[in-house]
Design a protein that fits this description.
Bound molecules: pyridoxal-5'-phosphate
Order of helices and strands: HHEHEHEHEHEEEEEHHHHEEEHHHEH
Distance between the termini: 28 Å
Low-confidence stretches: none
Oligomer: single chain
Number of helices: 14
Number of domains: 2
CATH architecture of the largest domain: 3-Layer(aba) Sandwich
Helix content: 25-40%
CATH topology of the largest domain: Aspartate Aminotransferase, domain 2
Radius of gyration: 22 Å
C-alpha cells in the first residue's frame, strides 16, 4: 500500500464554492475574501484579519508594518522554515538565531533572553557581527502546531521593547493556556500572527496566508502594502459604487488573496475543528504506537497547550539504531511511504553560513534534533489501514536495524 505524505481534504462544499466564484464574474480579491477575513478573525479572536497569498507575505508585511529598518536585528529560532528569516533579509535587516527546546523544538526563551542580554551588553553572539543595531522584533515559530512559550516570549518582548510577530504557519487551531486557566487561541497572543494556507497546512487555499492583529493601524498598513501601496483596495476600486480614484502612498507589494482561493478557505475554515479533531486522533494513535519504543522519540504536548498537529515528527534516538535517518527515509520510501524532514536548521544552510559565518556546533539542540528527524504522513482522511502501514513499517525497520 502506498501512503502519501499528504493528501488535501477537499469536499463538494469547497468545489461548489469555487464554481460559484468562477460563475460570479469576480475572481480576484472581493466579497468572498472579505467574508473569509471576517470569519477568520472571529474564529481566532482577533480584531482584524488581512488575507494574503502566503504566510511568507504575511511575515513580510508584518515586519514592514512594525517599521523594521536596514541593519536592525530580529530574533528567530534557527529551527524553522526558510520564510521566517528570509523576510528579515528582505529589509537588509539581520536574523539573530536562537536554539530551540528539546521537548517542543520551539524557540528556547531562556536562550533568547541570554542572547538579548548579550546584545544589550555588546558581548559576542553566535552568527552576529558587532557593532549591534537595535533589536526590533522577535518571531517565535509554533513548531508542528504546538505554540511556543508565548508568555515567555511576551515577557522578553516587553523587557526589550520588541515587536512580537508569531509564525503560526502550522496552526489552525492551536491554543495556549493563559493566566486564569483560559485557553487562548493562536491569533491572540502577539502583535501580529501569521498563518499559512499552503496545500498541506491544517486548512488550505492551495496557496494563501492570513495576518491577524488587534491593532487597527498595523492592519491598515498591511492591507495597503499588500496591494501596491494603494490607498484603497481593488475590490472597492472596481465596485460599481466606488470611485476610480486611488493614491499610491508607499511602494507596496502584490500579495492579495483571490476570491477563488478564499472560496476554498471559507469551507476549510468552517471545517477547521473537524479537521483538527481528526489530526489529534491520528496523532494520538501514533503516540501510543511509539510510546514504548526506546529507539524513537516524539514531541511532548504540554498540558498548557493544544497542538494543531500539523506535523507528526519522530526522531531516531542516537546510538540505538544502525541505520541513518536518510536511509530510514529511503527504506520507508521503498515501501511506498512518503516522509519529509522539518527541518535542517537555518544556520546549517549555505546562505546563512556564508553570510553570517554560522555552522555546526552553534545550536546543539536544533542540530541534534535534525540528525534524527522524520515527519510521518498525517492528514485528515488518512485511513486506519494507511496509518497502520506506516506504524508497522517504522516498527519493522527499527527491529531490523537495532544497534
Ligand atoms: C514555519 C513556517 N513558516 C512559514 C511558512 C511559509 O508559508 P507559505 O508557504 O504560506 O508562505 C512555512 C511553510 O511551510 C512554515 O513551515
Amino acid at each position: 500500500m502506498n501512503v502519501p505524505f499528504f493528501r488535501p481534504h477537499i469536499t463538494d462544499a469547497e468545489i461548489n464554492e469555487v464554481v460559484d466564484t468562477l460563475r460570479s464574474g469576480w475572481l480576484t480579491t472581493g466579497p468572498k475574501t472579505k467574508r473569509f477575513e471576517e470569519e477568520f478573525a472571529q474564529k481566532v479572536g482577533a480584531k482584524h484579519a488581512v488575507a494574503l497569498n502566503s504566510c511568507t507575505a504575511a511575515l513580510h508585511l508584518a515586519l514592514e508594518a512594525v517599521g523594521i529598518q536596514p541593519g536592525e536585528l530580529v530574533i528567530v529560532p534557527t529551527f524553522t522554515f526558510a520564510a521566517t528569516a528570509e523576510v528579515v533579509r528582505y529589509f537588509d535587516a539581520v536574523p539573530v538565531m536562537v536554539d530551540c527546546r528539546p521537548d517542543t523544538l520551539c524557540i528556547d526563551t531562556q536562550k533568547a533572553g541570554e542572547t538579548l542580554e548579550a546584545i544589550r551588553q555588546g558581548q559576542p553572539v553566535a552568527g552576529l557581527k558587532p557593532p549591534y543595531q537595535r533589536v526590533r522584533a522577535i518571531i517565535p515559530v509554533h513548531y508542528a502546531g504546538q505554540m511556543a512559550d508565548v508568555d515567555g516570549v511576551r515577557a522578553l518582548a516587553e523587557a526589550y521593547d520588541l515587536a512580537l510577530i508569531e509564525d503560526a504557519a502550522h496552526c489552525m487551531p492551536a491554543y495556549a493556556k493563559g493566566e486564569g486557566d483560559t485557553w487562548r487561541p493562536c491569533g491572540t497572543t502577539a502583535d501580529i500572527v501569521c498563518f499559512s494556507f499552503y496545500a498541506n497546512k491544517c486548512i488550505t487555499t492551495g496557496e494563501g496566508g492570513m495576518a491577524v492583529t488587534d491593532d487597527e493601524k498595523l492592519a491598515d498598513r498591511m492591507r495597503v502594502m499588500s496591494l501596491h501601496g494603494m490607498s484603497k483596495d481593488a475590490w472597492r476600486r472596481f465596485d460599481t459604487k466606488a470611485s476610480w480614484y486611488y493614491e499610491i502612498v508607499a511602494p507596496g507589494f502584490k500579495y492579495n488573496l483571490t476570491d477563488i482561493a478564499s472560496a476554498i478557505g471559507l469551507h476549510q475554515l468552517a471545517r477547521a475543528d473537524e479537521l483538527w479533531q481528526e489530526r489529534r486522533r491520528l496523532a494520538g494513535v501514533y503516540q501510543s504506537a511509539f510510546a514504548d519504543e526506546p529507539a524513537l522519540w516524539t514531541l511532548t504536548e504540554h498540558d498548557d497547550r493544544q497542538s494543531s498537529w500539523h506535523l507528526f515528527p519522530i526522531g531516531l534516538v542516537p546510538g540505538t539504531l544502525s541505520i541513518s535517518r536518510n536511509d530510514f527515509i529511503d527504506a520507508l520510501k521503498e515501501r511506498g511511504i512518503g516522509c519529509s524532514v522539518h527541518w535542517m536548521p537555518l544556520h546549517l544552510h549555505p546562505y546563512y553560513r556564508q553570510t553570517y559565518g554560522t555552522g555546526p556546533g552553534m545550536f546543539p539542540v536544533a542540530e541534534a534534533a535534525y540528525e534524527g528527524l522524520i515527519s510521518l504522513p498525517l492528514f485528515p482522511g488518512m485511513t486506519d489501514d494507511e496509518q497502520q502501514t506506516v506504524i508497522d513499517s517504522v516498527r519493522e525497520l527499527v527491529q531490523q536495524h537495532r544497534a
